[in-house]
Amino acid sequence: MTYDVTLIPGDGIGPEVTAQTLKVLKATGLRFNWDEELAGMAAVDATGTPLPDATVESIRKNALALKGPLTTPVGSGFRSVNVGLRKEFELFANIRPARTIVPGGRFENVDIVLVRENLEGLYIGVEHFVQIADDPRAVAESMAIVTRRGCERIIRYAFEYALKHGRRKVTIVHKANILKMVSGLFLEVGRMIAKEYEKRIESNDMIVDNTAMQLVLRPEQFDVMVTTNMFGDILSDEVSGLVGGLGLAPGANIGTKAAIFEAVHGSAPDIAGKGLANPSALMFAAAMMLDHIGELEPAERIRNAIITTIVRDGIRTRDLGGTASTEEFGSAVAKRAA
């Protein structure tokens, strides 16, 4: 079988890490029909917009995309690529796994998957200024909108993810003690859904500020976490920091119309073209893509290949304390994944 996938190499180090990820995917023996499209600054330079219609149409056709890191254009008039894709394809779930790989760090047993609601809350961008007297910007107001449907969809997704992936526990993260409506609704729905799964999946709920503290005190207590948009944005970076930063952090955006898999780190233009970038995050994202399409064995093979290359073989890029180039690391992982 051949899988049709939209490929967005990205900006900066994007093409380098994408090339090595494709090398690893090829080593698995799976076949892909890659429809390469542009987004970010590469798209602005070529077409005048960071998200061309051709890219959107390709994702709509394939319902599956692998995306390298993008540079957000500076200046007005440009729409955010990530926000545009979330809205266009109703990408309601952002999945961010974090797992301890490199030994010797502060935390040895971190294995957390954060599930973030992607479309609601404060990040919907409903905000305005209120004029008082002569000051047209005297007061800024922003509105958080949370729906029961949105809460049900993301929380149920988290519990189903836990079941599918053999996880033991889901933690519902909220601020219902203060935000009694927008966060209270999330908690209310979360507790209701948790009862449906109580004989199969353990669950608890935790206030977001306590969660942030507990993550750096005893991260091993967490397994799958599910939370709202802004809290998820903040906590997902904290979770990544527990395992060494964004260089090892993949992400998936799952929606009703498509699924897009990505490295969550930036495009790092300062090291672009120097062979210094760590392609692990995009490789892990590719493994998540294989999980999504049901190719579980090759997905696990890729994950094991990355970990073995780093831990047992000691082949590491500079961000992990090694000397391997991007290509040397990619070739080593591909050899292990074959």
Walk me through the structure.
It is a single chain. By secondary structure, this protein is α/β, with parallel strands linked by helices. The chain folds into two domains: 1-92 and 245-338, Isopropylmalate Dehydrogenase; 106-243, Isopropylmalate Dehydrogenase (3-Layer(aba) Sandwich), CATH 3.40.718.10. Helices cover 41% and strands 24% of the residues. It has helices spanning 14-27, 41-47, 53-62, 81-89, 148-164, 182-196, 208-217, 229-242, 280-292, 296-311, 326-337, and strands at 2-8, 31-36, 64-67, 93-99, 111-117, 121-132, 135-145, 169-174, 202-207, 224-227, 250-254, 259-263. The strands form two sheets. A ten-stranded mixed beta sheet has the order 2-1-3-12-11-4-5-10-8-9, sandwiched between helices. Helix 1 links the parallel strand 1 and strand 2 (31-36). Helix 1 runs parallel beside helix 11 (326-337) and helix 5 runs parallel beside helix 6. The longest helix has 17 residues, at 148-164. The protein is globular, with a radius of gyration of 20 Å. The mean pLDDT is 94.
